[in-house]
Amino acid sequence: MSDSKIELERMYTVPLSRAWIAPRYRRTSRAVNVLKEFAERHMKSSEIKIDSELNETLWKRGITKPPRRITVKMTKDEDGLVTISLPELEEDETEAKSVEPEKEEDKISTGSDSSKQEEVENSAVSQQTETVNVPDKKTKQPSMKSTKKIKPQKKSE
To answer: DSSP string spanning 22-50?
Structure first.
């Protein structure tokens, strides 16, 4: 952005559904045009610049499948130049995305943990069901309607 002061800054969720009316091989380019038209209409300026990160987000899924809607931040300089960019994520959102769930493989198992794992395995086995072919009364043909629970087999130690 230039050294000019920011005159106006707004957040918008832009519907890009009109881009899906275009032929499949022109949808994302039409989505870019829809975004520019939206900015021109709402920010009252004809000079519009799309940020490179926003452009990559629009083109991420290719030319045939642009997003249906996108949330953007539009800033207008005192010169009348409108810059459209992705909104900055708040600290809470970035922390939530960066924290990855721990895998069970990474945990170190102790004696009490192994008994918990056995309980989980036993409950998983007890909840399994099996589909049985039962003939339908009217048509006399097999159907996949009924299910029966599989009894867990006890381990002999």
So the answer is: S-GGGHHHHHHHHHHHHHHHHHT-SEEEE
- How much is the pLDDT for 52? 95
Give the pLDDT of residue 1.
46
Cα–Cα distance for residue pair 66/20, rounded to 1 Å: 8
**Cβ neighbours for 58, distance < 8 A, ≥ 6 positions apart:** 28, 31, 32, 35, 66, 67, 70
Positions of the chain with pLDDT lower than 50, given as ranges: 1, 109
Q: What's this model's pTM, rounded to 2 decimal places?
A: 0.56
Is residue 101 a part of any domain in this protein?
A: no
Bridge partners for 10 per DSSP: 74
Sorted by sequence, the CB contacts under 8 Å of residue 68 that are 6+ apart come out as 15, 16, 17, 20
CA–CA separation, 25 vs 62, rounded Å? 9
Residue 156 forms part of a structural domain: no
Q: Which domain holds residue 35?
A: 6-88
Alpha carbon distance 29, 23 (integer Å)? 11
35 assigned to some structural domain: yes
Residue 149 lies in a domain: no
* CATH code where residue 78 lies: 3.10.440.10
Domain total in the chain:
1
